[in-house]
Write a structure and sequence with these properties.
Rossmann fold; 5 helices; alpha/beta; globular
């Protein structure tokens, strides 16, 4: 989880569930069904969110949409500042994405750099018909011209704040917190 001093709880577990359920419905509605859909979770918290969206679509559409996992480590533009030996995880996209609608799924949209890296990684895998972006939280402060197609919660923040998404699968907790960055004091 992000480091910082607790300011407020933005979403509790029920609100996270409702937001993810709504995103799943919006994805199906906007794409007029599930034909040609591929869900792709961006590694770490985008993966359990994508799994949940897939499950909700199964529940209300009766269709199991293909689900992939995308590691963007080597596509990051700040790779040299992160670590000399970055840990690269496997990318696993179980279907050919040519001509498909790929929905990239992540927890927080901030500067847009993660989404840009995910776009580059996706394009290296094939040429989808379209790529959409779904995020649980959009906190603003874009540095690149990127916007999400599906947003669970728009949350205006200052650059002195950070958003911590905690998911049961990764953190053994379920909520979204607003934190004051400790390095800003």
């Amino acid at each position: 989880m992000e480091a910082g001093t607790f300011k407020s709880k933005i979403l509790d577990a029920d609100e996270v569930r409702r937001a993810v359920t709504r995103i799943a419905h919006e994805i199906v509605e906007k794409n007029k069904g599930t034909d040609k859909l591929v869900l792709v979770g961006i590694r770490r918290r985008g993966v359990p969110l994508a799994e949940r969206i897939q499950q909700y679509i199964v529940e209300f559409e009766g269709v199991k949409v293909p689900l992939g996992i995308l590691d963007i480590t080597l596509y990051r533009d700040d790779l040299s500042t992160i670590d000399i030996h970055p840990v690269v995880h496997e990318t696993d996209i179980p279907v050919n994405i040519e001509g498909k609608t790929v929905v990239l799924i992540d927890d927080v949209l901030y500067t847009g750099r993660t989404a840009r890296a995910a776009l580059d990684a996706t394009m290296d895998l094939g040429r989808p018909e379209r790529i959409q972006l779904a995020v649980l939280v959009d906190r603003g402060h874009r540095e690149l011209p990127i916007r999400a197609d599906y947003v669970g919660k728009n949350l205006p923040t200052s650059r002195h704040e950070t958003v911590a998404v905690r998911l049961q699968e990764v953190d053994a907790a379920e909520d979204v917190l607003l934190l004051e960055r400790d390095d800003m004091n």
